[in-house]
Amino acid sequence: MSQYFIIDFDSTFTQVEALDELARISLKNHPDREKIYQQIEDLTNASMEGRLSFSQSLENRVKLLQANREHLKLLISHLKKKVSTSFSRNTIFFKNHQDEVLIVSGGFKEFITPVVTEYHIKKENIYANTFVFDDEGNIVGYDRENPLSQEGGKVKLLEELKLEGDIYGIGDGYSDFQLKESGMIKKFFAFTENIERKSVAEKADHITPSFDEFLYINKLPRAISYPKNRIKCLVIGDIEEDVLAQMRKEGYNLRQREKIEEKYLEEAGVLLCDEANQPTSEQVAKAGRLKVIGCFGKVGRRLSEAACENGIIIFDDPKHNPRSDDFLPKRVIAFMNEGKTHTSCNFPDLQPPRVSNSHRLIHIHKNVPGILAKINDVFARHNINIVGEFLVTNPQIGYVITDVNTGYDTQVLNELKAIEHTIKFRLLY
């Protein structure tokens, strides 16, 4: 049976509401701009939360815009930089599902099409409103015959399309939920990466904090193997808000505590701590899910070695550099995203380039002879082509990154984990 993916644009595919952004461009020099901005934003939220009909909201917002074609050009440039992070990294999904992905929005084609077509989305699969212009290029209205300009427009459109198959809806607003309410789609996923509207989220089949989560749940191809919102980041001690903001932006599930408690450490994939609140070597040995520690201070030798023996990388700041509020989280993120170990205090140094159209596998093992041969034997027996491979060692461990062609049986992963002397194995993307 066919599958279709109905994706909203504003605050879903992009991080922002496009008409709100257009107002900030078109009214930049207007003496009452702040007042008008607020009116437009209030109208947007009222319709997205189901407190005002979409048709009323749209009509009132367009009247307030005072925009023209030149303003639209500036808006498009702005929106291209505001594509939601988890959408922008999953281009491969859109490329592989061009016929099944539909952008359905109460926004306008004039700014939606130039943004989403860069992600392999077909023009004929973009459903949105269209502006009406006067002879001088000013926006003077919109096509009122378009069902998407009307209340319940998305439902009306799907009735016209008569898609046969399982339909999944992804969006942040009430108009997206109406598709589920109408019974026309199989599941509605409330997208909360940019904004969470409680009145919508509480009615959804599933809340998806990122597009990665949606792809993971539905077992679809994705840029990262495991959604970051499912990875707990334990924060202990005096950690600056700028650091936490970086981790939140990446999508990690932050949990803050005053001191280390083993039950929380054992659930964490990432640990951020200050020098006064480091885990003990015994604690890291029990932290089976922990992959990386970022310590804002100096890490002792005993902890460094114990972490290495258990396949846990550490990035620390022995000199208390003021720039570490930016530097350390970037190192942690680079390791989690790409496997880079540069500047680690306990892992051998490796900075592999990203290889497109491949899967990246990380294998950490005791530094004994013959492991690389065993890894490659698994790939050879399963006829898997290696497109890049990197091995570095220190006295304790060997660290291997292998990039392989897409498409293989999951049995391969089980065999790699079962190699003798394996400490940790991870499918990165």
Automatic annotation (TrEMBL):
One Pfam family it belongs to: HAD
Keywords: Amino-acid biosynthesis, Coiled coil, Hydrolase, Magnesium, Metal-binding, Serine biosynthesis
InterPro entries xref list: ACT-like_dom_sf, ACT_dom, AHAS_small-like_ACT, HAD-like_SerB, HAD-like_sf, HAD_sf
Cofactor field: Mg(2+)
Reactions catalysed according to its record: O-phospho-D-serine + H2O = D-serine + phosphate; O-phospho-L-serine + H2O = L-serine + phosphate
Keyword Lipid biosynthesis: no
Residue runs in coiled coils: 55-82
Residue ranges annotated for the ACT domain, each copy included: 360-429
Highest taxon above the source species: Bacteria
GO annotation, cellular component aspect: cytoplasm
E.C. number(s) listed in UniProt: 3.1.3.3
Pathway it works in: Amino-acid biosynthesis; L-serine biosynthesis; L-serine from 3-phospho-D-glycerate: step 3/3
Taxonomic source organism: Mucilaginibacter auburnensis
GO molecular function: L-phosphoserine phosphatase activity; magnesium ion binding
Protein name as catalogued: phosphoserine phosphatase
UniProt GO BP: L-serine biosynthetic process
